[in-house]
Design a protein that fits this description.
The chain has one domain: Thiol Ester Dehydrase, Chain A, CATH 3.10.129. The protein starts with a helix and ends with a strand. A 10-stranded antiparallel β-sheet has the order 1-3-4-5-2-7-10-9-8-6, covered by helices on one side. It is built from 5 helices and 10 strands, in the order H-E-H-E-E-E-E-E-H-H-H-E-E-E-E. Helix 2 packs antiparallel against helix 3. Strand 8 and strand 9 form a beta hairpin. With 284 residues, the chain is α+β, with helices and mostly antiparallel strands. The structure holds Citramalyl-CoA. Citramalyl-CoA binds next to strand 2, strand 3, strand 5, helix 5 and strand 7. Its EC number is 4.2.1.153. Keywords: Lyase. This is 3-methylfumaryl-CoA hydratase. GO terms for molecular function: (3R)-hydroxyacyl-[acyl-carrier-protein] dehydratase activity.
Length: 284
């Protein structure tokens, strides 16, 4: 048994339920950060993944670790010297949540797996959440987080990111470059104090990235938003996404979509053959 596996023995956190009155304000602020064309909230319905600006935790300042991330939390694995990344997830929407109405989220630990990848040993933690409003189940979500233990390695493979816009033949396309202001505003909106997103000396010197890291949730949203804008008549009912490589502020990326009858394959490219994020979006 590896040290990582040993540290997880007996870890079995209980489910937790929280509620949110779903004020429209966070959604309107998110629309500004994403530069979403009007109308933002048709019939008050939250677009797919926009619930990420709700149900937020604001731990006391003293309860944050040196990385800005909470030092303790229900679904944070007891891994020594923990380093975390958002790796992917799946969302099924039966009926969208509506703003201006209390909604409830129940989260539980779904799955823990220690795996060995190109970057060494890591633990994948999947958290499953059910969202209810007006007594009905509206969405089921699974989110995969990856945790590593120990000091950051030198990430020399990231240092040579190209500085040109990637090109692709996909039907839907949108250019995107993360900049520090947008990353800061997205961190604030998602109550994410992780320093890799806004503290460049920390990102470079401590976590050894070549720059600020673009949020995984932001990349996932760019993909669903491109699909939503191009298929306004068909509501999105499923999203399955994976974050494959970190993206850094200043890196020109291309968000692409290749539609099919009832789904679309989405990617974020940092070079024509480098997929940094991918998603499959299903239309109802
Ligand atoms: C995830 C990394 C570390 C895998 O690392 P790797 O490349 O070394 O892995 P691999 O060699 O591709 O695969 C190894 C195993 O892992 C599995 N695997 C591989 N990927 C996934 C995935 N997504 N979900 C589930 N499983 C996955 C894969 O299927 C395989 O399993 P197997 O051995 O059973 O076949 C690597 O792909 C990576 O660095 N991705 C980018 C992560 C990223 O940049 N996230 C956004 C920034 S962090 C963030 O936003 C955070 C936030 C918001 O601040 C906050 O929550 O705190």
């Amino acid at each position: 048994m590896s040290d990582l596996e040993a540290s997880l023995k007996g870890w079995d956190p209980d489910p937790v339920t929280s509620s949110d009155a779903l004020s429209p304000d966070p959604a309107l602020a998110l629309a500004a950060v994403l530069e979403t064309p009007r109308p933002f909230l048709v019939d008050g319905e939250l677009p797919p993944l926009w619930h990420w600006v709700y149900f937020l935790d604001w731990p006391a300042h003293g309860d944050l670790g040196a990385d800005g991330h909470p030092a303790h939390g229900r679904f944070l694995p007891p891994v020594p010297n923990r380093r975390r990344m958002f790796a992917g997830g799946r969302l099924t929407i039966t009926r969208p949540l509506r703003v201006d109405g209390v909604a409830e989220r129940t989260s539980s630990l779904s799955h823990v797996a220690v795996k060995r990848g190109r970057s060494g040993e890591m633990v994948f933690v999947t958290v499953r959440s059910e969202f209810r409003q007006e007594g009905g189940l509206r969405m089921v979500e699974e989110q995969d987080y990856v945790y590593r233990s120990g000091e950051s390695e030198t990430r020399s493979s990231y240092a040579t990111a190209p500085r040109q816009w990637p090109e692709a033949a996909a039907a839907w396309q949108q250019r995107f470059t993360g900049d520090s202001v947008r990353l800061f505003r997205f961190s604030a909106l998602t109550a994410n104090a992780h320093r890799i997103h806004y503290d460049e000396p920390y990102a470079r010197e401590v976590e050894r990235y070549p720059g600020l890291v673009v949020h995984g949730p932001l990349l996932a949203m760019l993909m669903t938003e491109l699909a939503r804008r191009n298929r306004a008549e068909s509501p999105i009912s499923t999203v399955d996404y994976r974050l494959r490589r970190p993206v850094f502020a200043g890196t020109p990326t291309l968000v692409t979509g290749t539609p099919d009858e009832d789904s679309a394959e989405m990617t974020v490219l940092s070079a024509p053959d480098t997929v940094v994020a991918q998603a499959k979006v299903g239309f109802a």
